[in-house]
Amino acid sequence: IQKDEQLRGLVVSSTNEKFFSIGFDIPNLFPLPRQEFEAFFAAFNQLSIKLYSFPKATIAAMRGHAIAGGCILALCCDYRTMAAGRTLMGLNEIKLGAPVPYPVDCILRDLIGSRKARQVMEFGEFFGPEVSLQFGMVDQISPPEKVLTASIEKLSQITKNPSKAYTIIKQNRVQPVEAQILSRLEQVRADFADCWYSEETRELLKAAIEKF
Q1: Contact 114, 56 (CB under 8 A)
Q2: Which of 1, 100, 124, 178 has the highest CB neighbour count under 10 A?
Q3: pTM to 2 decimals?
């Protein structure tokens, strides 16, 4: 998509109407040896950074819940359309004994401000469409059956303008945050793994798996 000059942007969605994404597949990740988990986590962080810094416009079409890793992927897009109703989004990592991955920590603080970001990350609550819009985590709310259409329309509005100018504007926005992320990425990856394999977190993850 990045190399295809005919494609001006990207809408990220899900075939599941109930969930945009519920995040990490904890039952499959839990038994991994630390080295294998760290390889997965590094790949996920690289995906997050790649999506955030993608040179073309990106829209998250959130027809369902965007939880934890799913919320991260949505926040890495340029704009987010959230389904009206009982749809929820949030970063509940702290309730599982893990920190929010550093890339989205930086991205969220830049997006909504440090004070609101602390409330999102330090309490681990889920938010409905209205609060998510008020916080600035989403840009528009649409009826569930119109989320994808509204996202495509938003993308069309953006891509009517010259693509080179848009790319430069986006680079000016994301590159300082990307540089901040990369400056500490290796250190905080080890910190995350330390938490993931701590006794307290393992117990919380086991309980989460039972509800998965």
Answers
A1: no
A2: 100
A3: 0.96
